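Reviewers of the previous submission asked for a worked example of the structure-prediction workflow described in the proposal, so we include one complete record here. The input consisted solely of the amino acid sequence. No template or homolog information was supplied to the procedure at any stage.
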Amino acid sequence: MRDMTEQPGGGTAIQERVEDQRLGQEPWVCIVWNDPVNTMQYVTYVFQTYFGFTKEKATRLMLEVHNEGRSAVAMGTKDEMERDVTAMQAYGLWATLEPAA
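From that input alone, the workflow returned the following structure tokens.
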């Protein structure tokens, strides 16, 4: 919910935002899928480079992709996950988004 407050002296109304701007938005996830093209080292590199993950976290997620066929590598709003999916695809990885379970 947004709260409208007025500035003293009859100035312009200021719209205050709720602390959690995601209120009412369901979370989405960026899924990276295993593929026959990219090496495990490259996938780890992409996760470190784009998401800023530590080598350990990037390796763990890469192994999840490799062993389980997919990994949810990020969660956020639909717009954020569309951006991440587009970035993963630009790196040559197979990625999609879906609502978080």
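The mean pLDDT is 85. We consider this example representative of the routine output the project will generate in years two and three.
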